[in-house]
From TrEMBL:
GO molecular-function terms, A-Z: acylphosphatase activity; carboxyl- or carbamoyltransferase activity; double-stranded RNA binding; ligase activity; zinc ion binding
Entry superkingdom: Bacteria
Positions annotated as active site in the UniProt record: 30, 48
Root EC class: ligase
Native organism: Rhodopseudomonas palustris (strain BisB18)
Protein name: Carbamoyltransferase HypF
Length: 785
């Protein structure tokens, strides 16, 4: 935050115009300023506008100084003050009060105000809805200036009730009194409502008919206790819920959603309930209890009380606390843990509309808990874990989006950029006025309805934030839908388009998040992911780059092996195992070692001759240095992966889960060939050591751990060699493989011995959800060159 102190030579009794920028709308900021002014005997007004909060104030110089200091030091918990700008103001005669003024109907400038993310129910509202006799007792839509819907209900800036979906509900007299009272915590709280004037709740059956019930919540809880599946409308979309302790209910949900193995998110009433099933240290507990309230991945303590099918073959459970009054009331009455998974058809976006819910979720849910507050935009639940003492976001969505991030030093003069991200885990990023806004998670763009949501989000963000880019940025991949949209938009709008290599964007994302200056010098980036289009037209994924924000040089990579079957190798890990074994041992050596591999039978049952001919001829078998596919191959070798994966990352997650149960920290050897340019990191020695351990009867968990530690050692040692030889100033990490907590922790530990700073992803996802952020930074840097 910066403060412009203005003219200090003004007389003691003065007037000032004070502009506050940042996340200052929808957080009780105007009531906060009003209270300060009353306390300091100042006169004037405060209002929201398209740029943030504007204060006109008159009084003693010392009192105004105290006001500005308090704005900086005492702002509401959900607020984030970025700048305070001060200028002289001539107070009109007859000024006798300090008032909260209405927002101007029109403005002459651009929208630059931020939008606060949605915040989970606060303690005061939770106590109120739990207390008999309170006006909002058991009311599922209570909120105040400290909690409630924000981004999910806003249609336009400034954040005032007429610009939100709450405009559909006229305030009753008691709510209006609270809204107008400076002493009330609902003073100018835009989502304020009560049972008499606000949104209403009801229960429907699978046929869409309303269920007669004195209390829809109690009826919904009864259905859950009977093992039924409930679709409920939450903050940013529908959830599908069932009793997490019922094997029959969880199995039914899996069968109906055709989701055989992907872990379900869970919700429990409070921290104590979560700790019955998982370990949660102080940092993890604080994350669960934070206003963002993400799903937090926690070590599974024991299975008692939970169906094993909530997270097959996993060592971590994804738990969250109730995010809304509706969830709070539901969990308190139910008493146990609930599966709380996204309400959507597989591959499609989450449902947000009541009619769509009945149409699309009718085959999954036995009943529907509905309400009549519109959702302005769909928001999935954010997902996070704590690794290396820091919160690491795996999905950037509810509770975090669209909070702005200040650009690193040297980017203040950058033009406005729109970056379009990749194909998987779609997200866009806008830059403006020395800040970047990374959108909420949009999904995988291969699905037509998700792509439609992606296009809608581009228009939505442009309108909401009054964003007019002068430059577009997209991935190099010629077949990505996001890149195709960028090409068409660039042609139609006559805008330049920056094409950014996938792994360079991953590394730039980590650099920018950590505030690496534009002139900070070159860094060595370790980029590990599934697949990304390389600048040479091949498939990359296990890379070491020497780069700055402008450009990069590929210094080292995993030894490429074919992807037999092309895209099929992404979903059938045994194909990668064949390619890896043949590269390490040749075809005869592969045949000899298959009987020793726990997963060898799946591979032996395939048409290996046909695949080998295709690889030899280069038919649908592109060479790839993918680290993700190496994980798949090792998981397949250890029988941790089915012949056909049911979700992305299934094999790698099983491998990490098994490895996390071992205390072994030895690492398998990898070979580094420095005679080639770029250098090549060869896993062949790792495969020989893995087979030796199998023959010696080493536990599978230890073998899985040794693979993780060996991979970390190989890449970190190589990166440090490159950094020393090229006078690099830092090491940066990026790519979806770094969602693996064991690998990330191993790399952080290995690199900590160096004097170089390590720039690792935290609030920006390491996976493709953070790709647009890196693209935007690179495009901005090139524009400034």
């Amino acid at each position: 935050m910066t403060i412009d102190r203005g003219d200090r030579d003004a007389p003691l009794s003065v007037g000032e115009r004070i502009r506050v920028r940042g996340l200052v709308q929808g957080v009780g900021f105007r009531p906060f300023v009003h209270a300060l002014a009353q306390r300091l005997a100042l006169l004037g007004s405060v209002h929201n506008d398209s740029e943030g909060v504007l204060i006109h104030v008159a009084g003693e110089r010392a009192a105004i100084e105290a006001l500005v200091a308090a704005i900086s030091d005492e702002a509401p918990a959900l607020a984030h003050v970025v700048t305070i700008e001060r200028a002289p103001w001539s107070a009109p005669s007859g000024l006798v009060t300090f008032a909260i003024a209405s927002s101007p109907a029109e403005h002459g400038g651009r929208n630059t105000a931020g939008v606060v993310p949605d915040a989970r129910i606060c303690a005061a509202c939770a106590a109120e809805i739990d207390t008999p006799g309170e006006r909002r007792y058991r009311y599922a839509f209570a909120s105040c200036t400290a909690c409630g819907p924000r981004f999910s209900i806003i249609d336009a800036i400034p954040y005032d009730r007429p610009n939100t979906t709450m405009r559909d509900f006229a305030l009753c007299a008691p709510c209006r009194s609270e809204y107008d009272s400076p002493a009330d915590r609902r003073f100018h709280a835009q989502p304020i409502a009560c049972p008499d004037c606000g949104p209403q709740l009801w229960l429907e059956n699978a046929a869409g008919a309303r269920v007669a019930a004195d209390d829809p919540l109690t009826a919904a809880v009864d259905a859950l206790r009977q093992g039924k599946i409930l679709a409920l409308k939450g903050l940013g979309g529908f959830h599908l819920a069932c009793d997490a302790g019922s094997e029959a209910a969880v199995d039914a949900l899996r069968a109906r959603k055709r989701r055989p193995a992907k872990p379900f998110a869970l919700m429990a009433a409070d921290l104590e309930a979560i700790r019955r099933f998982c370990r949660a240290d102080a940092q993890e507990a604080a994350l669960l209890l934070s206003p963002a309230a993400p799903i937090v991945l926690l070590p599974w303590r024991h299975h008692e009380g939970l169906a094993a099918a909530v997270a097959p073959n996993q060592s971590l459970l994804g738990f969250m606390l109730p995010t809304t009054p509706l969830h709070h009331l539901l969990l308190n009455e139910f008493g146990g843990a609930l599966v709380m998974t996204s309400g959507n058809v597989s591959g499609e976006p989450q449902v947000i509309d009541n009619a769509d819910a009945q149409r699309k979720l009718g085959g999954f849910a036995d009943c529907f808990l509905m309400h009549d507050r519109r959702i302005a935009r769909r928001l999935d639940d954010s997902v996070a874990r704590v690794v290396g003492g820091e919160t690491r976001l795996l999905r950037h969505a509810r509770g975090y989006a669209p909070a702005p991030r200040t650009l690193p030093p040297g980017f203040a003069a950058a033009p406005p950029v729109l970056a379009l991200g990749g194909e998987m885990k779609g997200a866009i990023c806008l830059t403006r006025n020395d800040e970047a806004l990374l959108s909420h998670h949009l999904g995988d763009l291969e699905e037509p309805l998700t792509y439609r949501e992606f296009v809608r989000a581009i228009d939505d963000y442009a309108q909401l934030f009054d964003h007019r880019p002068s430059l577009l940025a997209a991935d190099l991949h010629p077949a990505y839908r996001s890149s195709a949209w960028a090409e068409q938009a660039a042609a139609e709008r006559a805008l330049p388009l920056a094409r950014v290599q996938h792994h360079h964007a991953h590394i730039a994302s980590a650099m920018a998040e950590r505030g690496w200056p534009r002139d900070g010098g070159r860094v060595v980036g370790i980029a590990l992911d599934g697949i990304g289009y390389g600048s040479d037209g091949t498939v990359w994924g296990g890379e070491i780059l020497l780069c700055d924000y402008m450009d990069f040089t590929r210094m080292a990579h995993l030894k490429p092996v074919p992807l037999p079957g092309g895209a099929r190798a992404v979903t059938q890990p045994w194909r990668n195992l064949l390619a890896q074994l043949d590269a390490a041992f040749g075809t005869e050596g592969t045949a000899a070692c298959l009987p020793a591999l726990p997963g060898g039978a799946i591979l032996a049952a395939q048409q290996l001759g046909v695949l080998r001919q295709a690889m030899a001829r280069g038919i649908n078998s592109p060479p790839s240095s993918s680290c993700g596919r190496l994980f798949d191959a090792v998981a397949a070798a250890l029988a941790l992966a089915p012949a056909q994966l049911s979700f992305e990352g299934e094999a790698a997650m099983a491998l990490e889960a098994l490895a996390s149960g071992s205390a072994d920290t030895r690492g398998y050897p990898f070979a580094l060939d420095t005679a080639t340019t770029p250098w090549s990191i060869d896993p062949a020695p790792m495969w020989r050591a893995l087979l030796d351990d199998l023959a010696a009867g080493v536990p599978i968990a230890a073998i899985a751990a040794r693979f993780h530690f060996g991979l970390a050692d190989a890449f970190c040692d190589c990166a440090l060699k490159i950094a020393k030889a090229n006078d690099a100033q830092a090491i940066a990490l990026g790519g979806g493989v770094f969602q693996n907590g064991l690998l990330l922790q191993a790399c952080l530990a290995r690199l900590s011995a160096s004097s170089l700073p390590v720039l690792s992803p935290a609030q920006i996802p390491a996976n493709d959800g953070g790709l647009a952020y890196g693209q935007a930074i690179i495009a901005a840097a090139r524009a400034l060159a």
